[in-house]
Amino acid sequence: MSVFKSHIAAMSAYAPPLEGRDPGQHLLLDFNERTLPVSPQVRQALLDYLNNDQLQMYPSYGELTERIAEYNGIHSNQVMITNGSDQGIDLIIRASCREEDEAIIPGPSFAMYYQCAKVENLNIAEPQYTHEEGFPAQAVLDAITPATRLIVIASPNNPSGTAVSRETIIEIAKAAPEATVLVDECYFEYTQ
To answer: What is the CATH number of the domain that holds 117?
Structure first.
């Protein structure tokens, strides 16, 4: 007998797509690897930080939070610093959903959305992106029910690169006022 919840014990381990990953042929942006060497200024800042003997202290996020808020044109209390987007996605899903709530995750998309939703034992609707229409806006709207607690929109989507308009995001949010709409724009700057 497993000590884990049965739906978690039945899950497959996440296996990232590692085949064909040749940095000589591709930029490899899908795993957020650096494409350039670390700049001398960043290297020096890290060395200075290490030499100031501050590693044992919890970091202060004040200045970083303010700069992110300013960059995005929002208030600093709307910024949450996490240990990468995976943790941010996990926290949002865990804070928003209860077991067996409904989640709408258009696919294919970033595997972490599905992984976190499955850990929370959510019922997942997966409208499909198409070559003709791209983001399945109407299928997402049609999938919304009173039990929908989470809708995930990646813009641009990974792996398709499809961007979703602000108007479409607002339309979906208005159609599901009881749901959390997780808009993942980690590659947003590439669309500008």
So the answer is: 3.40.640.10
Give a three-class secondary structure readout of 141-169. HHHCCCCEEEEEEECCCCCCCCCCCHHHH
Q: Alpha-carbon distance 97 to 179, whole Å?
A: 9
Between CA 11 and CA 14, with CA 12 as vertex, the angle to 5 degrees is 120
Helix (H) or strand (E) holding 120: none
Give pLDDT tens digits for 65-121.
999 999 999 999 999 999 889 999 999 999 999 999 999 999 999 999 999 999 999
**Domain assignment of residue 50, given as a range:** 31-72
pTM (two decimals):
0.79
Tell me: do 95 and 37 sit in the same domain. Answer: no
Tokens at 18, concatenated: 């590692």
pLDDT one-digit tens code per residue, 24-35: 777 766 666 777
